[in-house]
Write a structure and sequence with these properties.
Blueprint lengths: L7 H20 L2 E9 L9 E4 L6 E2 L5 E6 L4 E5 L6 E4 L3 E6 L10 E4 L2 E4 L7 E4 L23 E5 L8 E5 L12 E4 L2 E2 L20 E7 L2 H4 L10 E6 L9 E12 L9 H10 L14 H5 L3 E14 L2 E13 L6 E11 L2 E2 L4 E16 L3 H8 L23 E3 L9 E3 L7 H7 E19 L6 E20 L11 E24 L2 E19 L2 E5 L6 E5 L5 E19 L3 E12 L8 E12 L12 E15 L12 E3 L6 E3 L2 E3 L2 E3 L9 E14 L4 E20 L9 E24 L3 E19 L6 E3 L14 E4 L6 E4 L2 E3 L5 E6 L14 E3 L6 E11 L2 E11 L2 E3 L1 H6 L4 H4 E2 L2 E2 L4 H6 L16 E3 L2 E13 L3 E3 L2 E3 L1 E9 L3 E3 L21 E10 L1
Parallel strand pairs: 1-7, 13-16
Antiparallel strand pairs: 1-4, 2-3, 2-5, 5-6, 8-9, 10-15, 11-12, 13-14, 15-16, 17-18, 17-60, 18-19, 19-20, 20-22, 21-22, 22-25, 23-24, 25-26, 26-27, 27-28, 27-29, 28-31, 29-30, 31-32, 32-33, 33-34, 34-39, 35-38, 36-37, 39-40, 40-41, 41-42, 42-49, 43-44, 44-45, 45-48, 46-47, 49-50, 50-55, 51-54, ...
Length: about 1000
């Protein structure tokens, strides 16, 4: 081979030229400004941006923008968890569109029961919702993120108390007496739906900032894989995780929230009460001379704060994420607060060239709550406004100096000759300050998963997981001896609760492409064990003279323990032909310890078909169409929650100290069996669903439509038992059937997308009707709803379930009105024509469940600014106006009795009811009110700022600052405090406040 020789002169010239060119290139580095977004145009926040061959890098801000220095034409790589890495050539301005990838991706892959699936291949009704940092509003709990966001999912928060959870109903309720709550699955672990006493809500163990996605399974083909626990739908929560090779990134979220009273009840002030008392001929000298607004005395403006920090990244084969959060929430009802600490760890190492994959997740929560006495709200509406909060009169030292109606005492204590009068209104301020109720909760959960792809046969993989949750709570209540309720003796009470559950499963999954045919077969087994122990309320008062216990309840008398187990076998078959024709079939068999032999096993099949019309050859030239899919599915699910463990057998329990039996001089505890029913079986729900999915214009517009029918049989309800057949007057039985049917529609669109301005809007609406189709409650076709009562009645029940009517219908008298449209007190329609107004004249009128629920979110992005608002509506929901019904007794005895006055309100005065009629005026349909509403959930204004600090090529503290107004307004005709009432009886709720939040987010 001939070698080419260069002269020294030529070598020197070449070296000099190279150095010159290198220097020129270094001197000509450009500042690259870029924007990173996903396929729908949404900015990607926190993506890592690096220049190939260079150190350092940058992170995209809250608008998806970044700035980085690079040599011209060098390669820039952008990476983010859940997306495929993207590369671009350096230039002054670059736009990057990232494609999603990974196990929990939002668009292409969806986490479902026991596995994952492409969203395009889904055959059931499944909604995936990723919390939007720009529109989430004030979020104290995971359930807050779902409010108004998913079609057919009705989320009603449990009032305004700190940390309050929510009632979630997916496509209406499917049960009368058993649970209507959905099944929750967090990072693969099925959560025990029994909320521990002293824990604010079932989802308190998860920090909302840690949530990556919600997957809501609604139709039976999607839920049937969970079998006996899925009749009410399934909510799968997946938390954020790191990604392999990602450098460590840190995020901080912090906010301060000021909450204040949005609306108060309209009550009479001192002057108005005096005028009313005088008009009734009562001596006004019996009134005081103060002018106290009792609602102002118990409500306040509260300041709360929350903070969370996270670190995520990944070694070569081990993604990780660690987070911690702290929430200190103060309620607008004085003395109420909540402090909560959350932490989580996730590590997902992989080995053997990613054939062996592990995923370890652990979470810990500590919560401490101070509960205000809920009766203070009702007391503030009744307490005489002419009386002061406190008085210097020494007689009132027995009630701590608070004003309270007194009477003579019989404690045989010369220093305590008077006591509170239990038949008169309570001082609400004293109620709050004299009762100190504090609860502590610790919750730890974890899940370990392993997945192995068989070497040499990678289409088959084995998956196993083992998870557990342990919760321990305690509650202590101290009631002062100067209190209204436990005067002289005081009282100290305790309650403890412990639970743990262990869930283990294993399944094999085989996936293979045979030409145009793709098959996915999965089969597995699972065992679940749930253990709960604790006590009822135990404690005592103390005689201050003798030190002896008063009205003692022993701990040993309240201790209890129970457990239940579930053994399951399940399988799923997916078939895909030409990416156009899809078939899914699932089957699950559950064996439950809650049923007697012969009833233990339930079987839950499902089947679904889908046709992706957009993939047909005849639609190949419709380039603006991204997806068009028709879906049809059928399936059966079950229900066992709400049934006591061992209810099928007589469980003997020890009686308390008041049911002891004597032999001679010795007292012996007695044993008695609980009521039981050995014939109980599963509630079973059969669902038919048909749907359409559509997306177009590069996914800028997408919508889904679903219609469904749900038939539930073997309904569980408490029925009056035949005397002598069991212990107790009511017995849980399978007695009937229920039908839900409805339509759902959701749309996600970006009407405007330009370089500087983007407008996005999402809207969903769900219509649902329900009707009881069968009830066999002995000789009758109805059963009472025992959880609610009418005002001023002695256990007067207000709601009843009957064949042909919606569940929880109000059962009331039909009011008669005069020629001016004013109700005539005590005059009702004699519907049974027997000449007497009695229960035979009551009828079924409306129900609390809404006919229609809607949600709308609109978001505007202009350069670094963002503005968004969220609205939600409920139509056709009716509530019982308890406050007005309770005050409909404007007469001398209704205003003054037992030496004390009770306040009223202007609406009751204008109504003029005296409460003296033979038939109770409080169970008139006049008090059943249409509570339809339009609420603004939140309005948010934010600004995204670039890095505040630079160190070499590194940029730090880019982020976003925002201001949110939560619950700013409600549009409704309902005159009560708040039209959003879960059980339909608006009785002295904890007010939902209007809140103002200032927050900041940093990435560094």
């Amino acid at each position: 081979m001939k070698h080419v020789k260069f002269s020294n002169t030529l070598r020197i010239a070449a070296l000099t030229g190279g150095l010159f060119l290198s220097a020129s290139a270094f001197a000509q580095q450009v500042v690259v400004k870029g924007h990173v977004k996903d396929a729908t145009g949404e900015p990607i926040i926190g993506a890592t941006v690096r220049v190939a061959g260079a150190g350092g890098g940058a992170i995209t801000d809250a608008n998806g923008n970044f700035t980085i220095s690079a040599n011209p034409k060098s390669t820039i790589t952008i990476s983010f968890i859940g997306y495929e890495p993207a590369t671009v050539t350096a230039g002054q301005n670059v736009d990057v569109v990232m494609k999603e990838a990974g196990a929990t991706q939002l668009k292409d892959m969806v986490v479902i029961g026991y596995g994952k699936a492409k969203k395009a291949d889904l055959t059931g009704s499944v909604t995936v919702m990723k919390p939007d940092e720009l529109t989430k509003g004030v979020t104290n709990n995971a359930s807050d993120l779902l409010v108004g966001k998913v079609a057919g999912v009705d989320v009603q928060t449990d009032g305004g108390s700190p940390g309050a959870g929510a009632q979630i109903r997916i496509r209406g309720g499917a049960s009368l007496s058993a649970s209507n709550d959905p099944l929750y699955v967090i990072d693969g672990l099925v959560i025990d739906n029994n909320t521990a006493t002293g824990m604010s809500n079932i989802l308190a163990n998860i920090n909302p900032s840690d949530i990556e996605t919600f997957t809501v399974l609604k139709s039976a083909s999607a839920t049937a894989i969970y079998g006996s626990r899925a009749s009410n739908g399934v909510v799968i929560i997946t938390t954020k995780k790191g990604s392999s090779g990602q450098r460590p990134t840190f995020s901080y979220n912090g906010d301060v929230t000021v909450s204040t009273v949005r609306k108060k009840y309209d009550t009479l002030n001192a002057s108005e009460l005096k005028d009313l008392v005088a008009s009734k001929g009562i001596d006004t000298n019996l009134l005081g001379d103060a002018d106290t607004d009792w609602q102002d005395e118990i409500l306040r403006t509260a300041v709360s704060t929350s903070h969370s920090v996270s670190m995520q990244g990944g070694l070569k084969n081990m993604p990780y994420r660690v987070s911690a959060g702290y929430n200190a929430a103060n309620g607008i009802l004085r003395t109420s607060w909540m402090h909560r600490f959350n932490s989580s760890v996730n590590v997902a190492p992989s080995f053997l060239d990613k054939h062996l994959n592990f995923n370890f997740t652990a979470k810990y929560m500590y919560e401490k709550d101070r509960y205000a006495d809920p009766g203070a709200i009702g007391a503030a509406l009744s307490m005489d406004p002419t009386r002061p909060v406190r008085t210097d009169d020494p007689d009132y030292s027995v009630v701590g100096g608070y004003y309270q109606t007194l009477q003579g005492a019989s404690f045989n204590d010369p220093n305590w000759t008077k006591t509170s009068y239990s038949q008169t209104p309570q001082n609400p301020v004293a109620m709050l300050n004299n009762k100190h109720c504090v609860a502590n909760a610790n919750d730890i959960s974890g899940n370990a998963e392993v997945d192995y792809k068989i070497h040499g046969f990678e289409d088959l993989h084995i998956h196993a997981s083992l998870g557990a949750q342990y919760t321990a709570t305690s509650q202590t209540t101290d009631v002062a001896r100067t209190s209204y309720s436990d005067n002289y003796y005081g009282r100290q009470e305790f309650m403890d609760y412990y639970k743990y559950n262990i869930v283990g499963n294993a399944y094999a999954q085989y996936m293979h492409q045979f030409g145009d045919h793709h098959v996915d077969i999965m089969a597995g087994a699972e065992q679940s064990h749930y253990h709960r122990t604790g006590t009822g309320t135990y404690g005592k008062g103390t005689n201050p003279l003798t030190g002896e216990a008063y009205n003692e309840k022993l701990r040993s008398e309240t201790e209890w323990a129970t457990h239940n187990s579930l053994v399951s076998y399940f399988g799923r078959f997916n078939y895909n032909l030409l990416d156009r024709y899809l078939l899914t079939a699932t089957f699950r068999a559950d064996g439950s310890s809650r049923f007697a032999k012969g009833h233990k096993w339930g079987y839950f099949p499902s089947a679904a078909l889908a046709w992706r019309m957009s993939e047909e050859p005849f639609m190949a030239n419709i380039h603006w169409l991204n997806d068009l899919k028709l879906r049809f599915d059928w399936g059966k699910t079950g229900q066992q929650n709400g049934i006591d463990d061992f209810y099928y057998a007589p469980v003997y329990v020890r009686g308390d100290q008041f049911s002891q039996y004597t032999f001679g001089d010795t007292y012996y505890y007695t044993m008695r069996p609980n009521k039981y029913n050995g014939k109980l079986t599963w509630e079973k729900t059969e669902t038919w669903n048909v749907g359409v999915d559509f997306s177009a214009l590069n996914n800028r517009v997408g919508f889904s439509i679903d219609g469904y029918i749900r038939n539930t049989r073997d309904l569980l309800a408490n029925v009056t038992a035949t005397a002598g057949t069991t212990f107790g007057d009511q017995l849980l039985q399978n007695i009937g059937s229920l039908r839900n049917y409805g339509l759902e529609f959701s749309i996600d669109a970006k009407p405007i997308v330009t370089k500087d301005f983007t407008w996005g809007v999402t809207y969903n609406v769900g219509w649902n009707k329900n009707k009881i189709t069968e009830l066999k409650a002995g000789a009758q076709d109805w059963v009472w709803v025992n959880s609610t009562e009418a005002a001023r009645g002695t256990s007067t029940r207000l709601q009843r379930n009957k064949v042909g009517e919606p569940i929880n219908s109000f059962f009331v008298y039909q009011q008669v009105y005069d020629d001016n449209g004013k109700p005539i007190e005590g005059l009702y329609v004699d519907r049974d024509h027997n000449g007497v107004i009695d229960d035979g004249d009551r009828y079924y009128y409306k129900s609390p469940a809404p006919d229609v629920i809607m949600g709308l979110t609109s978001k505007f992005l202009y350069k670094n600014w963002d503005l968004s608002f969220s609205l939600r509506a409920s139509l056709g929901n009716y509530v019982y106006y308890y406050n007005l019904a309770n005050k409909a007794k404007v007469c001398d005895s209704g205003l003054y009795s037992h030496g004390a006055f009770e306040n009223s309100n202007p609406e009751a005065v204008a109504l003029g009811f005296t409460g003296l009629t033979t038939a109770m005026n409080s169970i008139s349909d006049y008090f059943i009110r249409n509570a339809s509403f339009l609420k603004c959930s939140n309005i948010t204004l934010g600004y995204t700022f670039p890095a505040l600090m630079k160190c070499g090529s590194h940029e730090y503290f880019a982020g976003r600052v925002y201001f949110t107004v939560q619950n700013p307004f409600i549009i409704t005709k309902y005159k009560g405090l708040d039209p959003e009432v879960a059980n339909g009886v608006d009785r002295d709720p904890y007010p939902r406040p209007v809140s103002f939040q200032l927050g900041v987010h940093f990435d560094f």
